[in-house]
DNA sequence: CGGTATCCCACATGATACTG
DNA sequence: CAGTATCATGTGGGATACCG
């Protein structure tokens, strides 16, 4: 959670940061950005690297990122023609906050899974007791 | 996005960090944790502070946080009886990664909104051109 | 190659009522 | 006070087909 500031909006669903945090927390945005970190890539190159994403969803995700100024879309002339997507400085600047969150997750994933298993065992035991 | 590691899983929807990131990215988890930073609180105290959340959703959110070991639930004896929720050390340790992300958003929200407006103006202009 | 156009569904969230 | 139960809904995401 954000640090405990005087800013009361952080407690409200209409905090202006919500739409932005919602997008970068969606299913694919973070991974699309990750794919573009090493170098710009073409549409189908991104799609191949993100096994499981559909064309429709990749298009939607790229459009939202472009609209936010995090990705730049460039039509390539030449043969074969194509479209290239690249990180903007704004998009690249997201790398650090995401890395902090990702590293936190990696550091605590084992502890979290142990908690989950313990919680689930308890739930099973409670259900048994109530029989 | 996570930094560019050798770990190929970061590109995959089945990366083991997904379920955790999905939860802490859900609509209310972050705000519930934020409310608990200054001090433990009772169910209805949390609910009052998060205007707009329903009882059902608050219960679900707290159960998931408890299951992950981020929040501890304590039944208070005495009169009136009640239930108190408190951050665990694990839950509190999320404060920093979240603050980094939140600060990034605050720092760039103006730039992002300008990009969005420019993008939307372009879309309107393109629609007009195609008439 | 890089998309749109349709259709569909699961699931997160919400509204409301009831309870130990 | 702290929930559960029930029902409703919007939308993010997926499947598939077609297009310039």
TrEMBL record, chains A, B:
Listed Pfam families: HxlR
Gene Ontology molecular-function annotations: DNA binding
InterPro entries: HTH_HxlR, WH-like_DNA-bd_sf, WH_DNA-bd_sf
Name of the protein: Transcriptional regulator
Keyword terms, alphabetized: DNA-binding, Transcription, Transcription regulation
Residue ranges annotated for the HTH hxlR-type domain, each copy included: 15-113
Keyword Aminoacyl-tRNA synthetase among UniProt keywords: no
PANTHER family documented for this protein: TRANSCRIPTIONAL REGULATOR, MARR FAMILY (PTHR33204), TRANSCRIPTIONAL REGULATORY PROTEIN (PTHR33204:SF39)
């Amino acid at each position: 959670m954000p640090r405990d500031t005087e800013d009361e909006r952080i407690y409200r669903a209409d905090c202006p940061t919500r739409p932005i945090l919602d997008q970068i927390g969606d299913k694919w945005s973070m991974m699309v950005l990750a794919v573009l970190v090493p170098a710009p890539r073409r549409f189908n190159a991104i799609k191949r690297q993100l096994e499981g994403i559909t064309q429709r969803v990749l298009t939607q995700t790229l459009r939202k990122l472009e609209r936010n100024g995090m990705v730049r879309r460039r039509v390539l002339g030449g043969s074969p023609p194509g479209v290239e997507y690249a990180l903007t400085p704004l998009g690249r600047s997201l790398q650090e906050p995401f890395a902090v969150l990702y590293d936190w997750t990696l550091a605590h994933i084992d502890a979290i899974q142990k908690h989950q298993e313990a919680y689930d065992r308890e739930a099973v035991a409670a259900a048994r007791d109530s029989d």
